Amino acid sequence: LEIRKQADDFAKFEASRVSNVILIEWMPQHDLLADSRVDLFVSHGGMAFCQEIAHARVPALLIPIFGDQINNAAALAHVGIAQVFSKFDMIDSDKVRKAIEEMLGNSSYKLNALRIHDQLAARPTSP
């Protein structure tokens, strides 16, 4: 999997104003999730991502757009490793900030991510 984002001039300008935002054309999502500095990941919640997030031990703020993403996001929220955020609320920066702060301030998301990882790791799979 890869992350692709074509940054327009406005996005580049806004990103240049803060020190903790990096715009990059491509980055392997698996490598990004494996970085110990990642405390929360924002995604649409596709099936491949759901598997990666469970193995990465990283909570997620999920913004499902269509298809299986809606059910995937609900399933991850049900086990406590994600919060579902409406795509229609993305325009409200206060709601986005509050959702992120709530997840980062609530250790249960991280603990549940660790629990789910351990359960998957302990479950043998067929070759």
From TrEMBL:
SUPFAM superfamilies registered for this protein in UniProt: UDP-Glycosyltransferase/glycogen phosphorylase
Enumerate the InterPro entries for this protein. Answer: UDP-glycosyltransferase (IPR050271), UDP_glucos_trans (IPR002213)
Keyword annotations from UniProtKB, A to Z = Glycosyltransferase, Signal, Transferase
Q: Which GO terms describe its molecular function?
A: glucuronosyltransferase activity
| Highest taxon, organism lineage | Eukaryota
EC numbers: 2.4.1.17
Catalytic activity field: glucuronate acceptor + UDP-alpha-D-glucuronate = acceptor beta-D-glucuronoside + UDP + H(+)
Q: Is-annotated flag, keyword Glycosyltransferase?
A: yes
**Claim: Transmembrane helix is one of the keywords in the record:** no
**Which Pfam families does the UniProt record give?**
UDPGT
Family statement: Belongs to the UDP-glycosyltransferase family.
The protein depicted here goes by the name glucuronosyltransferase
Task: Tell me which species this is from.
Answer: Pristionchus mayeri
